[in-house]
Design brief:
about 525 residues, Growth Hormone, Chain: A, about 80% helix
Length: about 525
């Protein structure tokens, strides 16, 4: 049972490798002719094999839909906040209620796909995601929207890992490598597509259309999945899910995020803030104790003692928090201060996405030659410089003079940082635990983004104003905080990660983390 429970996690490893420009031995190994022949002859797998292109298209569209509901909503935030009368740091819960549930349940969703059935979990997650999208579109109050967005996160945490697991079972050899490359490309392009889609729909229709558009897409995906996704042949197995660990981790992280977002209004030393925040930290400690005793833990806590894994996780939290914060703060400034429309704002983010892509592509080549310590330190220094430039935004600023230069510099640094961190974490993992560590890496990305949005939105709302020219001061303060975070992350990378002399030989012996040229 434990071996099967790591199927999704192993898939995450290979997907992360392909996504970050790396190859895996498993993904590139040729499938023997006899194996290919048997695969083509085996019942439901035969029908799936005949429509592999359609199957891959369905799974990629499902993943794209999950990604878009983070980036597209960023562009719609000002319109959404005005319609639902959201103020201060409460605006951030539109995103964090989704990313918090999605990130904290990602490992659990992968385990559930292995034990309960991949198609079952894909369709169940799709159903929950669709129903929650409708509820989000119909929301008349902030509380209703936040609850619906949390439902979307739950559906995404079930749907996304199940889709990846289906790819791993339906494709073999070089076809699997190509499928995983396409999966990674969707993840990378999702940010650029999301800001454009969000801008178009919000500009020419309404922010609710971002959620309504999921309904026909999800219906088509469900019909297609019932036809082409191979049926689950085994009965659901409920033992080994570690539901208690997943619930405890999610609740604890939610408490910490709540304490951060409400700290400004309730008071940082108030009883509410201290009880909720410390309760969340105690809950995470309880999660660690629970996982150490579990027979099939979602996460082997002792692996965090490894400097590459534990240090890498902190750096991933910092990098992801900076990325999410950069998108949020820039969107608020462009629309609420400069008065740009949603579509113009979406177009304004395209250079940022391109800069991040360039940084990500360059990182694989640089790390292969110079290890991770120097490149990661440099990446965070570049990020800090970009955030410092953005901190100069003012009430009478302009996009070309005050936003674009900082966007390009910070995007270049963060694109390089995320890829370099992933390589560091995967290279520091033992072979039999690469799936679990890769899953931790993906979870760290979502949780880091959630905490980053909570922190930066709280700082930006510190002046009490998030709309109008006077909002520039709070947004500037948040960019200063982002620059400080990047600087600290650079120092941590320099102090914790191994030197190139020790890291590069280890990297070249690890095919799961080797950058491809």
């Amino acid at each position: 049972m434990r071996a099967r429970s790591h199927t999704f996690l192993s898939a995450l490893t290979r997907a992360a490798a392909i996504h970050h420009g790396r190859k895996t031995a498993t993904a590139t190994a040729a499938t023997p002719p006899s194996r290919r022949y048997e695969h083509g002859r085996s019942g439901s797998e035969s029908s799936a094999g005949n429509g592999r292109g359609v199957l891959l298209f369905v799974l990629l569209i499902a993943q794209l839909m999950v990604i878009l509901d983070i980036t597209a909503v960023n562009i719609a935030l000002p319109s959404l906040a005005k319609d639902l009368q959201l103020t201060g740091s409460n605006v951030s819960w539109t995103i964090t209620s989704y990313s918090l549930i999605f990130g904290s349940l990602l490992l659990f969703g992968g385990r559930a796909a292995d034990l309960l059935g991949r198609r079952r979990m894909f369709l169940t997650g799709l159903g929950i995601f669709t129903a929650s999208s409708f509820a989000s579109a119909m929301a008349g109050t902030a509380a209703t929207l936040f609850a619906a967005r949390a439902g979307q996160g739950l559906g995404a945490a079930m749907l996304s890992p199940a889709a990846l697991a289906i790819i791993m079972t339906a494709f073999q050899g070089n076809q699997r490598a190509k499928a995983l490359a396409a999966w990674g490309a969707v993840g990378g392009a999702g940010a650029a597509i999301g800001v454009l889609v969000g801008g178009l729909l919000t500009e020419y229709a309404d922010w609710r259309t971002i959620f309504y558009v999921n309904l026909p897409v999800a219906a088509a995906l469900a019909i297609a999945a019932l036809r082409i996704v191979p049926a689950d042949t085994q009965k659901p197995r409920w033992r080994g899910l570690d539901l208690s660990g997943a619930v405890l981790a999610t609740t604890s992280l939610g408490a910490i995020v709540f304490a951060i977002t409400q700290g400004q209004s309730a008071g940082w030393t108030s009883l509410q803030t201290l009880l909720v925040g410390l309760g969340g930290l105690a809950g995470l400690a309880g999660f660690a104790a629970l996982e150490r005793r579990a027979n099939a833990p979602l996460l082997r806590i002792e692996r965090l003692a490894d400097r590459a894994v534990g240090g890498g996780l902190f750096l991933m939290l910092a990098a992801a928090g900076s990325i999410f914060g950069l998108f949020l703060l820039s969107s608020l400034y462009l629309q609420n201060v400069l008065g740009m429309g949603p579509l113009a704002t979406g177009l304004a983010f395209i250079p940022l996405a391109l800069a991040a892509g360039i940084g990500a592509h360059a990182a694989g080549h640089i790390v292969n030659r110079h290890g991770v310590r120097g490149p990661l330190t440099g990446a965070f220094v570049i990020t800090a410089a970009g955030m410092t430039l953005l901190a100069h935004v003012g009430e009478t600023g302009s996009y070309l003079r005050d936003v674009l230069p900082g966007m390009l510099v910070a995007g270049l640094g963060l694109g390089s940082a995320v890829v370099s961190v992933s390589i560091a974490i995967l290279t520091g993992a033992r072979h039999e635990e690469t799936g679990m560590i890769s899953g931790l890496n993906a979870t760290g990305h979502e949780i880091g983004g959630t905490i980053g949005i909570a922190i930066f939105s709280t700082i930006a709302a510190g002046t009490g104003i998030l709309a109008g020219p006077h909002a520039a001061a709070g947004i500037s303060h948040a960019f200063i905080a982002a620059a400080l975070l990047a600087s600290v992350a650079g120092l941590v990378a320099l102090a914790v990660l191994p030197t190139a002399r020790h890291f590069v030989p280890k990297l070249r012996l690890n095919p799961l983390a080797m950058p491809a040229h």
